Amino acid sequence: MKLPGYYSSGQFAKMAHVTLRTIRYYDQKNILKPSYINESGARFYTDDDFARLQQILLLKYLGFSLSDIQEMTIEATDLTHMLNSLKLQRRLIDDQIEQMQLVAQAIDNTIETIESKQDIDWSHTLDLIHLTGMEHSYKIQYQNANNINARIQLHNNYSTNKQGWFPWIFEFIDFKEDIQILEVGCGNGALWLDNYDKIPEHCHITLTDISEGMIRDVRRQISKNDNRFTFEAVDAHQLPYENHSFDHVIANHVLFYCDDINQVLSEIKRILKPEGKFICSTYGNRHMHEITDLVQEFDNRIVLSANLLYERFGLENGHDQLSAYFTNIECHHYDDSIELDQVEPLIEYILSC
């Protein structure tokens, strides 16, 4: 009997232009399970399963192993979630294109060197060609981006504070003529993308992150022709800038990830102008505590975060750490709460941790 909205294994395979054997194999490997199995064992799939299959086939095309794909694919619970997943997959393709362009350039340079009978710098050539081994970093970046997306979506869709976090942070920037701004750990560049239309023309913003993948991603999203922005892969422990270079330095939920917070604060103090401003953010020991309590009540073996980041740099101890390097310290609270009546976004958030 035909179930409304369901496709048999054969129909599903035909729709996707793959073999029935492939569908069965993905089922056996727990990569793509059917949405319904009837009493006789017949398997049926839905449009949501088809969206997940799209992810699997694309990641397979990009060269990821099935074990990688099993970790990287996500459930398509709604169109917004799927849209974000597709955007992440597009970024993976852009990374691959950029990688292959660099390899092609390395080969062209080697050909040109050989034809001109010059000495070949094989070490430089090999360094570029080894870019083909970057799939692991792409995988990690993709997984992290998926996890970050699940957390951002929970706040975007269910926060009671409708102003939004990034517009609120943006208000603390004192824009003036030719202001020099550095963001440490810019991540996906959301602070600037969410406020792009508010950024004045006569300013210069340097976006840095320890992840070269993040910097590539942000550079693509913010127009390369926007002369207000510079992008650099930088370790916050060793900032490659001259003393008193910046009017503002921003570290948005970054300090508690740093191995040596004092070293980072010392570097930020060094590169700030005497009248400069350091804008940093963190959270306190009660942040999202209801979710932790809920999970612990369900199974006390589950730990959402192995590191209590607020103990490293949080609302309770941040002032003391900052006071060793800065004066006139002010603390501003962003008042917000999460209110929802659906379980799926909450589960996605928990799994992202």
Work out the helix count: 15
Rounded mean pLDDT score: 84
Unreliable stretches covering 5 or more consecutive residues: none
The helix/strand series, from N terminus to C terminus, equals EHHEEHHHHHHEHEHEEHEHHHH
Number of strands: 8
Given helix and strand content, the structural type is alpha/beta
Radius of gyration, taken over Cα atoms and rounded to an integer in Å: 24 Å
Major beta sheet, strand line-up: 6-5-4-7-8
What share of residues is helical? 40-55%
- Biggest sheet character: 5 strands, parallel
Strand-residue fraction? 5-15%
Distance between the termini: 41 Å
What does the overall shape look like? globular
How would you portray this structure in words?
The chain has 353 residues and is α/β, with parallel strands linked by helices. Helices cover 48% and strands 12% of the residues. The protein has 15 helices and eight strands. It has helices at 9-16, 20-28, 47-61, 66-72, 79-115, 122-129, 135-158, 165-170, 190-193, 212-221, 261-271, 289-298, 309-312, 318-323, 344-352; strands at residues 7-8, 36-37, 43-45, 179-183, 203-209, 229-233, 246-252, 272-281. The protein has a five-stranded parallel sheet with strand order 6-5-4-7-8. The protein has a three-stranded antiparallel sheet with strand order 1-3-2. Strand 4 (179-183), helix 9 and strand 5 (203-209) form a beta-alpha-beta unit. Helix 7 packs antiparallel against helix 15. It starts with 6 loop residues before the first strand and ends with a helix. The mean pLDDT is 84.
